[in-house]
Specification:
Strand content of chain A: 15-25%
Strand order of the largest sheet of chain B: 2-4-5-7-6
Distance between the termini of chain A: 13 Å
Number of strands of chain B: 7
Order of helices and strands of chain B: HHHHHHHHHEHEEHEEHHEE
Strand order of the largest sheet of chain A: 2-1-3-4-5
Shape of chain A: globular
Structural class of chain A: alpha/beta
Largest interface: A-B, 22 and 23 residues
Oligomer: heterodimer
Number of strands of chain A: 5
Radius of gyration of chain A: 13 Å
Largest sheet of chain B: 5 strands, mixed
Shape of chain B: rod-shaped
Helix content of chain A: 40-55%
Number of helices of chain A: 5
Helix content of chain B: over 70%
Number of helices of chain B: 13
Chain lengths: 136, 531
């Protein structure tokens, strides 16, 4: 569809309470040479990072203990509305894709997903996102 | 039921008893009427015969053939007694104002008169007879006396008068007697002779008068009238009595029949009520079972949701880690390892699909919006969820998507219908022994503006009787606990809500159910019609 995204222009924040999934996601972004890969295990922690650092993409789980993905999205929409947020969801009692988009997220990827699907969705989403045309 | 039987049978028995009593009463009354009728008839004929006997005796007495008048008096007495007897008859008393009563009263009065006449007849005849017997003795006393000739002449005239008298002759005899009375005044028996002679003269007239009174009496005509009026009355009375009893017997019989019918009706109602209670109880039991089933399904859904959430995240971790291994591996150095990694990735994909299928059936999709979905996707997702069970039981499953189309639907609901049809097919053939019968085939076809998905099994066809009831709620041929008979009726409702039809194909040689849905013929998706 489009040329592979140049991840070196993106600072990515992975928000996921499940450590194994969080680590492997970070590992994939590092292997795709993202400018910076940061991680948090809940919304509050993620918000602190966003406040101290510029972030180009937030990939966040919806359901997390304490402050969840929806909470994080709402805060970001208030403070940094330009930061793109993509949700990861298990599909049960979580948000639906249309609900997520209505709240301001760019997309929703149902778990479990293959890495091919993940990056395809992210690249498709970011390539059409206004103001974030970092791809070549 | 027992109470009901007692409460209705008892009155029926009582009414029938009353009818039987009436019949007996009628028979007794008729017998009694006949007995009384016999007595009356006897009395009437006796009166007639006594009357004749009196008249005969009176006529016989004319020629002195009758030695005694007692028979006449006795017969008159008997007539009087019979009249009294008749008037005393109980059943005749009730008819005091009838024609018969009047006739009887007149008749008895006439009998009374006749009785007095016979008395008078007897008295006058006795005197007459006595004088005739005594006169020769008195005549003998004139023997050799001067008046002998005149006395004998007068005696002769008197005897002649006694045999054949008339008024003229009587006057002549009276003249002779007056003359004798004067001329033979001195003779000691003249007075006596004249007195007895006059008794004969007058007695004859008196006797004639009474006799004619007795004989001319119209008692006979009155008797005939009495007979006729009695016969009329008796016939009428018998008719009335029969009609009256007949009426009551009919009433009783009608009541008994009515009660029996009422009893039958009540029995029918009771039976009907019992059937209804049984039916309702069965429905209630099925509703309860359905509720339990539904509660189970809801609980299962919630549980499945929880499990899926818990599993999906670590599953995602496995998937990504495996993919990382694939990325890191050297295709040559790790040639043996890479297929293993692929297996892991594929297996995770399968688990993921199963969980996704589970999600379809655990969620309440009734308020979901319709989306467009390919029939083949709906079938494949559903089959992912149940094909393991089917294949594990040696059932051959064939999915033949010769044509495909997009339908506007709530995918979860259509999947539910497909699963229901496949499960029914599986239940129908799962236990069969013949291998060629153990098949389930899913096929698609296009008919006009509709796409058809059929589910067919190799089992024996469904009977005509069961075919008619297939789509009815709570109809099931499955054993208790295996099905509540709601699957097809719910499925039918779902398909109809989608503007389609769910039906049993009667023309197919083996059981075949067809889902027919309108396909979406818009934009480029139309191209999907032909696979």
């Amino acid at each position: 569809m489009s040329n592979p995204l140049d991840w070196s222009k993106y600072k990515v924040l992975v928000v996921e309470d499940e450590e194994d999934l969080r680590n492997i996601l970070c590992m994939f972004f590092k292997r795709r040479k993202a400018a910076k890969v940061m991680s948090a295990c809940n919304g509050e922690e993620a918000l602190k990072i966003v406040e101290g650092e510029s972030v180009d993409l937030v990939l966040s789980d919806v359901r997390m203990p304490g402050t969840d993905g929806v909470w994080l999205l709402d805060k970001l929409r208030q403070r940094n509305p330009e930061i793109p947020v993509v949700f990861l969801a298990t599909g049960f009692a979580d948000l639906s894709e249309s609900e997520a988009k209505a709240r301001g997220a760019l997309g929703l990827i149902p778990k479990p997903f293959s890495v091919t699907v993940l990056f395809k969705i992210l690249e498709d989403t970011l390539s059409v996102h206004p103001g974030l045309k970092k791809s070549g | 039921m027992r109470k009901l039987t007692k409460s209705t049978v008892l009155p029926a028995v009582l009414v029938l008893g009353a009818a039987a009593l009436l019949v007996v009463r009628l028979a007794l009354d008729m017998a009694s009427d006949l007995a009384e009728d016999h007595i009356v008839q006897y009395d009437l004929s006796r009166l007639d015969s006594l009357n004749h006997s009196i008249n005969e005796d009176v006529l016989r007495s004319r020629s002195f053939m009758l030695l005694s008048y007692d028979s006449i008096v006795t017969a008159a007495e008997q007539m009087h007694g019979t009249c009294k007897h008749l008037q005393g008859q109980a059943h005749l008393k009730v008819m005091s104002d009838s024609a018969f009563a009047t006739a009887l009263s007149a008749y008895c009065k006439a009998v009374e008169e006749k009785r007095a006449q016979t008395e008078a007849f007897k008295t006058s005849n006795s005197l007459f007879r006595n004088s005739i017997k005594y006169l020769p003795t008195l005549v003998a006393k004139y023997e050799n006396s001067p008046g002998e000739k005149a006395v004998r002449k007068a005696f002769g005239e008197i005897l002649l008068h006694a045999v054949n008298s008339d008024a003229e002759h009587s006057a002549q005899v009276e003249e002779q007697l007056s003359a004798l009375e004067k001329t033979l005044k001195a003779h000691p028996v003249t007075q006596e002779f004249v007195r007895h002679s006059r008794i004969i003269l007058e007695g004859w007239d008196k006797r004639k008068k009474v006799e004619s009174q007795i004989l001319s009496s119209d008692i006979e005509a009155m008797g005939d009238k009495l007979d006729t009026s009695y016969d009329d009355w008796f016939t009428l009375q018998t008719e009335k009595s029969r009609l009256w009893y007949g009426f009551w017997i009919m009433v009783c019989a009608a009541m008994a029949v009515g009660l029996v019918m009422l009893f039958k009706r009540l029995q029918w109602w009771a039976q009907n009520l019992e059937d209804k209670v049984t039916e309702r109880t069965e429905q209630l039991r099925q509703s309860q079972q359905m509720l339990i089933q539904s509660t189970k399904i809801t609980a299962l859904g919630e549980m499945a949701g929880g499990i899926a959430h818990e599993i999906n995240t670590p599953l995602g971790a496995i998937m990504l880690n495996a993919e990382m291994i694939r990325e890191l591996a050297d295709p040559e150095a790790n040639a043996e390892m890479l297929p293993v990694v692929e297996t892991i990735i594929r297996t995770v994909g399968r688990i993921s699909k199963i969980i996704q299928g589970l999600r379809r059936f655990s969620r309440d999709s009734s308020n979901d919006d319709k989306t467009k979905a390919m029939v083949s996707d709906l079938v494949n997702e559903t089959m992912n969820f149940c094909q393991e069970k089917i294949r594990a039981h040696d059932v051959t499953l064939s999915v033949n998507m010769a044509v495909d189309a997009k339908v506007s639907c709530v995918p979860e609901q259509i999947s539910q219908v497909i699963l229901n049809l496949v499960n029914n097919a599986y239940d129908a053939i799962g236990e069969l022994k013949e291998r060629e019968q153990k098949t389930i085939t899913l096929e698609t076809a296009i008919r006009g503006d509709r796409v058809e998905l059929s589910v067919r099994n190799g089992g024996p066809p469904i009977s005509k009787e069961n075919q008619a009831r297939l789509m009815q709620p709570f109809f099931t041929t499955k054993p208790v606990g295996k099905g509540v008979g709601l699957g097809l009726s719910i499925s039918k409702g779902i398909i109809e809500e989608h503007g389609g039809k769910l039906f049993y194909d009667e023309t197919a040689p083996s059981p075949r159910f067809v889902i027919s849905l309108p396909y979406v013929a818009e934009d480029e998706d139309l191209g999907g019609l032909a696979a």
